[in-house]
UniProtKB/TrEMBL annotation:
Subcellular location: Golgi apparatus, trans-Golgi network
Keywords: Coiled coil, Golgi apparatus, Lipid transport, Protein transport, Transport
GO CC terms, sorted: cytosol; EARP complex; GARP complex; membrane
Keyword tRNA processing: no
Full protein name: Vacuolar protein sorting-associated protein 51 homolog
SUPFAM superfamilies: Cullin repeat-like
Top-level lineage group: Eukaryota
Lineage: Eukaryota, Metazoa, Ecdysozoa, Nematoda, Chromadorea
Amino acid sequence: MSSFSSVLDVTKPDFDVEAYVVKLLREKSLDGLVKEEEEMVSAVRRLDSDVHQIVYENYNKFLTATNTVRKIQDEFTQLDSEMKSLSQSMTTISTLIGNLDGVLGEKRDDILQLGSSYKVVNSLKHIFDLPHVLQSEFDERNYGEVLRMFKLAEESLEQYKDVPTVQTVLQKSKKIYDMTENQLMDQLRNPASGAELVSEAVDLLLTIGRDEDEVQQVLLRCSEQSLREDLKELSTNHSDVLDLVDKASESFIPNLTLIATTHDRLFEEKRDELLAVLQTEMNSLHALVSKVFLSSMDAKDCSIVVRALDRYFRKISTCRHVIPGLDFLPLTIELINEVSKHEIDLSLLRIKEELKNSLNEVRKALINEEKDLSGLASKIEQVFVHQVKTALANLLLFTASDVTFANLPPDEFRQSFALNAHERLLVQAFHRFAELADEYESGAGETRFIDPRVLLVFSVALQHLSNKSAVYLLNLCREQFSLTPEEGLTDISVVTLEVKLRAQKLVRCYAEKTGLSMGETLVKGCTMLVQPAATPSAIRASVRRLVEEMNICDSELALLLGGDSKPKEARVSRRPITTALDAARDSLWCERIDFHLQIHFNRASIITVIVKVVLKIFIESIRLQTYSKFGVEQVQVDCYYLQRCLAALVSDEVVVNSMVDQALSSALKRCQDPVLVHPSRLAQLCEAPPASANRPSSQASSLGY
């Protein structure tokens, strides 16, 4: 079987073409035969190409080898010629030496003496050239070579110093030697000298026997002066805190570590003196860095501050390991805590400033007749939420995973920082918001003459904040900084209650100021009218204007707080007062009006307080007047109109009815002969359009009626 396989293998020497072809015809189809042919042709071509490549490569190698052999042959031919020439030259030299030996043999001793004299002269030449050589080395700042050469020649020169020429050489060399020593001391004292030059100077000075204590003290003073120069440059040449830390990392701290390394290598036993100097200079650096960190006044630079703080912390940590005994890590951790508090205070200040700016924009918008009060309230709330979230995001940079000091033990930084973020930033932000509300509520300073609607918008923003956003922000802070209530956090309900109380104060202030403004306008319009000379024929203009303003206010409240602003049908269910006796009797049963009920954030509750204030002012102004018969009738008409229009706006009609009755009763008491208008006449007057002829007369009494 194996012999048959070898017959069919094209690579074997006993390959049988006929058998191979028969096998292919028997086993393969026409397509298979064509494919086999293509593969065989391709294989033959590849083989042919490989053979050509091998032949070409071997031919190149053969040519290279031939050239090499030819070159070697030429070189051997040349070498043979040179060797023959050398042999002839050696023969000639040998002959000459033999001849010279015969000629100079008698003068051998003189020649030896001449050689010895030549050596002495050559040595003297080097000695006389020593000052020139030393000066040349000194000029090239090769101070070590100057000292070495002088020390080598000094002993020999001292032996022959009695010779004037040698003494001159010694003096000149000694002068250059002293100059070199002084130059090394100057180099050591110069703060501008690099660490390598200082180290070289110390080594050379100690080598030549200079007093070790003196050299060490000079080195310390020089190091101290160099560090102070670096500090001076840092204090005057930095753009921000990050630039300061970078420059300190590139100059002061490397210089500090190099000084410590050099001193420890040369004066290891005097390390305490070195540490005292380094401690003083590091205190100065830390004071400078702390001052710049704490002088930052823009909360937007928080990322830069954190990066700078992290780099400074890493450099100080490295110094602690490189310079044992110089540990500024506790002070650096203290600085980190101080800077974090400073950034919290800056964020808090920025929140308050943005809130003030937002409220100023609201005031300007209301001056420009802005109608979207709901949008203005949302804007105030959104500004607060956005600023708080931005501040929290900035503070999270202090605890980022790539910040080195974030990995300190929790009791050294993270725990107190997280608590400050909640209490010192977030809780205080709500407190500052509440203080701002108190400023607007008190009306002090620039808030004294603001539009009362600003108070309304502000109060609605606070109410919305207490209902939802306050809880969201407090929970967000606790989640981001991994805080739990057990850590002594201010309860959420305390914060929301404070905000709600300020919202209540503001909305009450709005209602009272609005009511006071409307009431003063009403009273002014009523008291300036003349005393009627006849039965009233229309509602007074100031009363109609009051009702119009009240309807406008009602519409604004409906748009802001929701609810139906369309007045409901007024129900005049009570029997109209027809006589003074009826008025006196009804006044005994008037409902007690409470002016300090809690105001709810809805249209009816707020408008009710405004109506109470207006009617109370109206009542008090009536009690200050004295009325004629027609004056009482006018008051009755006005009261009826007010009762009819205002009762539809308030949440409880009884309030309006009771206060209108008090107003009419007060007018009746201030009239000697009161007569009231018939109810049917009252209805006609209230339904009649405003009379243009109802103008003040020049015969008005000073009392108004």
